[in-house]
Specification:
3 helices; two-stranded antiparallel ribbon; mainly beta; Laminin; secreted; calcium
């Protein structure tokens, strides 16, 4: 079984046939499946789609039960949580729908954890971290682009000279470097390469 375009979040099952891991879809399993849009809906009240999964939470005045349903709770209504709550040994605790969120100082609203600045994010050396609300993702460093090569997705150097995205002077030559480029004035010209006289 060979899949020319690869299976990003799945396994290759036959000639260009991917079997996606739960929570992913698409020909190459590279798209996140929005479980919140499925019928029947996976959550009773509110649903938050996450990368490869989803989280359920309840309207105010209800609490999330272990089976994902929402049960009316007088105590929950009094606390006024942003994303519903749970009762543990008679104590009411507000919940946050994702691990990338934490309870704010008021104990009711959820605030984002910036995984990129706290060092919780794991991105390979040639990728940079981009924080999102409740999560983060890894993007190729500037001067690199995501390409499917030798069976997987990699950040490959962009050749600015071939792509013609350089800003070299008309009288300069462009030299591609790893992640960037350089400009050198042609023979008989002097300057920075961006300006040649």
């Amino acid at each position: 079984a060979t899949c020319g375009h690869g299976c990003k979040y799945g396994e290759c099952m036959g000639p260009n046939k991917c079997k996606c891991f739960p929570g992913f879809t698409g020909k190459t399993c590279n798209q996140d499946l929005n479980e919140c849009g499925l019928k029947p809906r996976p959550c009773e009240h509110r649903c938050m789609n996450t990368h490869g999964s989803y989280k359920c939470y309840c309207l105010n005045g209800y609490m999330l039960m272990p089976d994902g349903t929402c049960a009316s709770s007088r105590t929950c209504a009094m606390v006024n949580c942003q994303y519903g709550c749970e009762e543990v040994k008679g104590q009411v605790q507000c919940l946050c729908p994702s691990g990338g969120l934490q309870l704010g100082p008021d104990g009711r609203t959820c605030i984002d954890i910036d995984e990129c600045s706290t060092g919780k994010a794991v991105c390979s050396y040639n990728r940079r971290c981009v924080n999102t609300f409740g999560s983060y993702y890894c993007k190729c460093q500037l001067g690199y682009e995501l390409k499917y090569t030798s069976g997987r997705y990699n950040c490959v150097d962009v050749n600015e000279c071939v792509a013609n995205t350089h800003r070299c002077n008309l009288h300069a030559e462009c030299l591609n470097t790893e992640g960037s480029f350089q400009c050198r004035c042609k023979q008989g010209y002097r300057g920075s390469g961006f300006d040649c006289a």
